[in-house]
Amino acid sequence: MVSCINANYGECQTKPYPQEKCLGEASYQIDACGSSQSASCGGLWDTSVSSVRIPAEYATGPGGNPTDPKLVESICFSRYLDEWFVQKHAADLEYWRSYGVEPRSMYFGSQNGAFRIYPARQSEECGTFDHRLRPWYVAGSSGPKNVVLILDTSGSMKDYSRIGLLKQAAQRIVSTLTVSDRILIVPFSGTAQPITTTDGYMFEATRENKEILATKIDDLKAEGSTKFYEAFDQAFRVVEKTAEKELTASCNTAILFLTDGQNTEGPDLGNVTALVDKRIKDISARLNKSVLLFTYSISDDDRVHVYPNQLACSVEFGLWSKISQDNQIVDSLSSYYRLFALGLGTENNKDFAAWVEPYQFQTGNAWGTTVSVPVYDRSKSPPLFLGVVGVDVSLEALDAALGANATTSQELRDESIRRIVEYSDASCPTTLGLSSCELEAYRAFGAPGDEAMCGVNCTGFEVAQVQEEACPTQPDYPKSLFVDGALPIGGPGLVEYPKRACCVTGNFTASFMDVCVVGGAGGDDKDGDDQPSIGLIVGVVVASVFVLCCCLYFICCSDGQSSQSNSAAIGTGVPIAEAWVPPPVTPHAVCSPINPAWVHPEATAPPSVHDEEHSFEDDTRDKAKDP
């Protein structure tokens, strides 16, 4: 841990990174940096190091440092990835440039909020990016899935602006889904009105459908009584109808039920419980996959919490959460995928990988996708979920593999999307793979604690570890993780992003005010003359993310030996195209030994003229919010 002190680069720096440079390739263009009649404008990047981002709410220590020991550990063990990042970037340059694109970003996002991204670049709004809300992270930690939201919109939801928080939570869940997922929303009060396709099926979570659902969610109103039976009955009808036509994701299903009141109309609670138990079993048998029930109750009246707790315990995979404060609604409803992540760590899911629907990268004015896989500490039983690794790939390269380019018709672009969906669906998790005692441990981990447990008789040896633990032999965690010049998240003195991060290509300093003008076009993308096979493109990308996982495993083990950390991680393998199959991989064979004594490169750029207000920005909030 000592070597981690002042050894990480933050997302907002008052001093330059060690080898930052204004890169001129089209892939590195940043819209906020504009263009110029007399020069090529871009942003400052550093391909010699990575940078770290954490949400502002975790930067509670002096200087914007985190104080959570588990978060500190994640930042410290992942910093040795820089050596591999640099090597991989250099090795891939010739390959990707032969098709007119540059190697894209690589990153690791921990489940506790630490995000390390390569190459390093400035962030526009410090502390605003949370990778756990991005589709690539949710897809990588949960797999393709069916998600059913059963939401209480009765009159009592007007109290304390709960309907607004409910909408926010539903919007967040929908936004994290990918084209491999299916979604159904069932608002209910005295009646239930499922939001379905025109044919009455669940929605495929495409970008267009998510926009439709966002509008529907905004239109929800709080009024009427509360009828549980009809809400569940209508939800199951739609899921069953969709399954009959084989239009569901052929994977696990999550049903999220939220209420702030008691059942006031319709069949009694005994009938509701019987309905839910039978229909969940029926759907599980039809899909041959697990169906999970998550119940949430929000109220200061203890009577409201009784039935949602009982209902969760009445099914095989059920979890209840008590929301005691209104501002917990959003985080509670969007955390369902963490349980899926535990199940993905089983041996029969070791080849799982996720591809997300193509989105517009914030840099380069280009479209691309992300392939991601979960990372586990496999020294634990069950394997302990640590986070997700991801590698970006330009859609331009995939288009080239299909004989397309950036200016071809939407039909050809849709073909790329279809292929991506095929690769993602092909690796569907087979089962949740959790024992009743492991599930009971997860219940105790939630906000209600022991209240949420269902009374499963487990011995001390059977109770599983479901979250990371701070290392018991580490007496004092570093309190200053970042190099000199890192700005406290949300700190004063930040100047506008273009003034401190934009530059003229080839320079080593910001020069926005002198030359560049916001609003101009970025560099033109180039298409390669040759066309690789789609299998080769996919093989190269998934091999990269697999080796990244292997290196992360080796890093954690090496770091654990020197720091007595209890964390070790290993990534899963990933499905690859038949056209190209890499040789068997081991961490030692593919990833060069990680040297804990390795330090970030000394600055070799000319002396910087940055003033003390220089910092790095995150332009992930505007377009598709890519990292």
Distance between the termini: 27 Å
Quick one: biggest sheet?
8 strands, antiparallel
Q: Fraction of residues in helices? A: 25-40%
- Report the β-strand fraction as a percent range: 5-15%
Number of helices: 16
Shape summary: globular
Question: What is the topological layout?
Answer:
Blueprint: E1 21-22, E2 41-46, E3 51-53, H1 69-78, H2 81-97, E4 106-110, E5 115-118, E6 120-121, H3 135-142, E7 146-152, H4 162-175, E8 182-188, E9 203-204, H5 207-218, H6 228-244, E10 253-259, H7 269-287, E11 291-298, H8 302-313, E12 318-323, H9 329-333, H10 337-344, E13 354-355, E14 359-360, E15 367-377, E16 384-394, H11 395-401, H12 410-425, H13 436-445, H14 497-501, E17 502-504, H15 534-563, E18 570-571, H16 587-590
Parallel strand pairs: 7-8, 7-10, 10-11, 11-12
Antiparallel strand pairs: 1-2, 2-6, 2-17, 3-5, 4-5, 4-16, 8-9, 13-15, 14-15, 15-16, 15-18
Helix pairs in contact: 2-15, 3-10, 4-5, 6-7, 11-15
Structure description:
The radius of gyration is 25 Å and the shape is globular. The protein is 31% helix and 14% strand. It is α+β, with helices and mostly antiparallel strands and 627 residues long. It is built from 16 helices and 18 strands. Helix 3 (135-142) packs across helix 10. The longest helix has 30 residues, at 534-563. Strands 3, 4, 5, 13, 14, 15, 16 and 18 form an eight-stranded antiparallel sheet that branches. A six-stranded mixed sheet has the order 9-8-7-10-11-12, with helices on both faces. Residues 519-534 and 560-624 have low confidence and may be disordered.
